[in-house]
């Protein structure tokens, strides 16, 4: 009996001890949740405005902290490890209290209206791996203690009003894989020490006010997959030949940043490259034939430079090429026949060069052609019959050449066409049946040719007859048709003073007019090609590329790192 009582007392003591510990643990858990809830509410109170979804941030609701909007806790539902209030219509300043959430691993506040300085105490978040503050209005310099952020893998501050020089402290971030300082007002030069971040896979410094030479040391970033240095930076010198060592590069964009000199042939060794953008610079010399070794290239834009010579025959090996832009250069020679045999080609723009000879007869036979602009050259011969064989062609511009012969009948069945400019050639014959009735057509220019037929649609030609009332594209308008005010339903009708509709009563005679009409019909006015140098900086800063809640590339690199370490 005594032994039984002893055992009962023992188990009772154990149960009491367990209950006491459980209560203490639960109390500690609740205290910790309440403390984090208080921090978040303090952050919210410092804001000027925010999305109503943040109304769930209420201390009285602290027990459900882990279900608050934008909050993610650890596996024990005890500590806040992720805060994502991206695109939440927030304005105001970000309280330094945010740095009291010491368990944070991920912080994303992109796509809001945060202003003033970002809290310099960010170094207190020593566990932070992902930081995205892009697309806000933060200002000031990034005078952070980067050396304390040893776990940081993604840093995205794109499209803010940050200034000062590029911070050199980021070179101490040994785990950093994604760095975007683009779309700000950083000035000075690119520190050569940036070439020491050999773990980087993504680097963007585009859209700033950087000067000086691009350091060749960036060629040491051999893990780099994407590199963006262009747009409104104003560099001296040219493209470092050391970039040929970046053999893992998939995308390189050095557009519109005052680069001069030749294109380094070393770039031809970048076998993984699918995008090369060098447009709107001051590059000179011939196109290196080594670029023909870019077997993975899909988009190649060398436009708006001062390149000379012809298109290298080695480009016949670019079997994955989708876009080829070489316009606004000083290139000459014939357009190579193999251009028509590139199986994936969709966009070909070679305008404003000195190309001669005929357009390759098989151009368009791949069935993928969407946009073709060969205007302002010295091309002769016929317009190829196969341009719209895939029924995908949308833009056809061949103006200001020496093309002759009839227009292909197949163009009258190209229902996808919406912009056509064929003026100032020597085209003859009649307009293909259906060509003027295409359902998507919004601009047609045929002026100053030798076209003939019964329907007069443009001046400066030799048409006869009467404007037919059945021309049925309601969006077409122009001098002899409806004014371009979008108010009437038919281009051959007009409103009189009583708003009643009448048919156009006159005829236009078939004589060659000494005066020219650049466009008889078209939606409002389309000017000549715009010079890409007229692009404004806000177009870069407002890029939709960074408008998603988590930048897809940044998230990709971060998730890949998490899988590796788990």
TrEMBL record:
GO terms for cellular component: plasma membrane. Pfam families: LRR_1 (PF00560), LRR_14 (PF23598), LRR_8 (PF13855), LRRNT_2 (PF08263). Residues 93-230 form the Disease resistance R13L4/SHOC-2-like LRR domain. Residues 36-74 form the Leucine-rich repeat-containing N-terminal plant-type domain. Its main location: membrane. The keyword Magnesium does not apply. It is a single-pass type I membrane protein. Residues 542-552 have a biased composition (Polar residues). Keywords: Cell membrane, Glycoprotein, Leucine-rich repeat, Membrane, Receptor, Repeat, Signal, Transmembrane, Transmembrane helix. It is found in: Cell membrane. Residues 540-566 are annotated as: Disordered. Residues 1-25 form the signal peptide. SMART domains: LRR_TYP. InterPro entries: Leu-rich_rpt, Leu-rich_rpt_typical-subtyp, LRR_dom_sf, LRR_N_plant-typ, LRR_R13L4/SHOC2-like. The keyword Iron-sulfur does not apply. Gene3D superfamilies: Ribonuclease Inhibitor. Belongs to the RLP family. This is Leucine-rich repeat-containing N-terminal plant-type domain-containing protein. It comes from Salix udensis.
